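Last lecture ended with a question: if I hand you only a sequence, what can you say about the shape of the protein? Today we answer it with a concrete record. The protein is Cation:proton antiporter. Below, first the input exactly as provided, then the predicted structure, then a couple of comments.
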Amino acid sequence: MQELNIALVTIGGLTVALSLVAGLMRNKVYFLSEPMASVILGIVIGPLGLGLFRLSHWADPFTIMEQFARLTVGLAVMAAALRLPQRYLRTHIGSMVAVLVPGMIGMWLVSGGLVYLFLGVPLWIALLIGAIITPTDPVLAGTIVTGTTAEQYIPASIRDLLTAESGANDGLAYPLVFLPILVLQHPPQRAITDWLVSTLLWEVGAAVLVGAAIGAAAGWIERESREHEFLEETSLLSVTVALTFAVLGGVKLLGSDGILAAFVAGLLFNQFADATDESDDQKVQETVLRLFTFPIFVFFGIALPIDQWISLGWAGVALAAGVLLLRRLPIVVIFRQAVRPIDGTRDSLFAGWFGPIGIAALFYATVAHRILGNEIIWGATSLVIASSILVHGITATPFTKLYGHLIDNPQSSDESDQSSAFSEG
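The predicted structure:
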């Protein structure tokens, strides 16, 4: 009970403090992001610091992190869906296909190749770790594309692109993660059959259909209730949060991908619900998400496997640096012509850099650890996650402002483009 009170006072106090000074941190103390502060608190109160709190005293640490991460990512993808304009994916279907199919596969192969190169693990273990760190995290991405600074310096088209990608690819990473897991568990022929039938057709396909049906039904009911004045304001404020939990739990009971279903449900709810309620839904979802975001980052700080990081040595440092630089940035630059919101080198560099790795990777890492029990998966993945929290947290505000200034003052870039064209001519 004492540890529960310690968790309540430290995490509650952190949430209050960060909520009151969020604007100050993003504009002045930009080198200390909210996720970074949460991880530091976990280090301080955990076994690496004062030893006041240990997840193992409650239950298996990986089970706690897996379930808390699942809820947090579910809320994050629902919030991402509610932030998007209605029918966004329909009007940007070509761009999203480019980002989510060849883009994700490219990031997976690059990440897996880097793991294989630097850590020397078996190929399918490398591909599994690569798949885990492939998706753009909706929690960390949300801290970059929301708020006054983002609205002032980042065009709405780029914010929507990063939001849509981070919401969709967390669920779509599911088949990438489970292909290596199945291959490591079963003979190749059975693994491929199970992946095609169970993973793709049922766990992914059913998630899309069930999420779409629930989201559309909930949105239609909300609209009808609004028109007939059946809906009270207090009821409205709980609808999307309850919808997230219902979809996560219900689809999981069916054996499908609850995270993907939550995102699809959010998209369809957003499309069918009364448009005047979207801002309220979004605000409530973002508020509840913050209440889950800080604890999971604190838990992550408590569970950091520093000993495993040390054992990786310089190979671990090279892996983290290679993933942050090569996993996403070259892929976005290569496919920029197929992604309509990206217009030119500036957009592709900005969108390519800000693909943070966070709670979604943490969720898949704990799932893989539970199934396979291979410690290198947790050691390598947690190192990359921590590196992304640190590096993307430090660079978020200055890079965002630099990007905004370059957009407002494009003359120097235009002149360089013209000189380059002249020299080529």
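Comments.
1. Residues 61-424 form a domain with the Na+/H+ antiporter like fold fold (CATH 1.20.1530).
2. The chain has one domain: 61-424.
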